[in-house]
Every structure is written in C-alpha cells, then in structure tokens.
Amino acid sequence: MRLLDKVWPLLQKTPVWVWGALASAAGFVFLGRRAQVAEQHADEAERHATEARLERDTAQEAAQAQVHIERADELAEEQELVRTETLSRVAEAGELSDQEVAAWLLRDAKGRVGDEPCDIPPEGWVCTRRRGHPGPCAAIRKGKT
Question: What is the pLDDT of residues 114-145, one digit of tens each?
Fold first, then answer.
C-alpha cells in the first residue's frame, strides 16, 4: 500500500478549520519573511542615502575650502602688490634708504628680516629678493637717499 493511500483517509477526516489555520500560519510565515526582506531593503536604502548625503556634504565642503584658498591667495598677492608699491613710493620719495626698503621687502612670513639683499641689480635699482635668488631680479628704482 502506498503512503498516500494510508494518509488520505486521515486528511479527509481533518476538519476544515484546521486546514484554514494551517493556511493562515503558512501565510503569516510567508508575509513575515516578506516583511523582513522589505525592512532589510529599506535599511539598505537608508544607508545608501546617508552615504550619498555624506559624500555630497564632503564635496561641498571641499569646494568651499578651495574657494577660500583661492581667495586667500588672491588677497595675499594683492597685499604683496600694495606693500611693494607703497615701499617703492616711499623709496622714490627718499623717506627710507635703499637698504631699509630692501630689508622691508625681504621680511619673511614670521616678520624677521631675511638674508642680505641681492647685490646684482643694475645701477639705479634695488632688488627686492634675497642674495643668490634664482632667476632675474625683482628690482625697484632707487629712491633719493
């Protein structure tokens, strides 16, 4: 006798409400698993969204930092031009000696006077760079001293 022939009479005697309960339980298990998968997908989507926001914020901060760096460079160049022009006018007016002008132009970022001024500019000019510098002189006309 086959297994189905033995089980079939028992299955026929099982009340309908048992079959309904079994179907409901199977449905709940299936729906519960679907809910878990949906929750995992939602968590993963939120994680990706958070990562994307962080990357966007980092890119914006980097762009802002670059703008600030460029602006600081522009201001430093502008400040150096104003400083050089002012010292040139003062030197031409004879208010400072050539050595004093060169010393002011040679101040480093810490406010200390650097090496001795360059000694190779042409007659009538004072180099604003240090002695032994590479390239041509950055010279200004000598003032009346």
Answer: 456 777 888 888 877 777 777 777 778 876 43
User: How deeply is 139 buried, as exposed, middle or buried, from its count of CB atoms within 10 A (0-12, 13-18, 19+)?
Assistant: middle
Q: How many other C-beta atoms can be found within 10 angstroms of the C-beta atom of residue 142?
A: 17
11, part of any domain: no
- What is the domain extent for residue 57? 26-141
Number of other residues whose CB lies within 10 A of the CB of residue 105: 22
Instruction: Determine the number of helices (DSSP H) and then strands (DSSP E) in the chain.
Output: 3, 2
d(CA 109, CA 6): 99
CA 78 to chain centre: 25
pTM: 0.37
Residue 99 maps to a domain: yes
Cβ contacts of 119 within 8 Å, gap of 6 or more: 127, 131
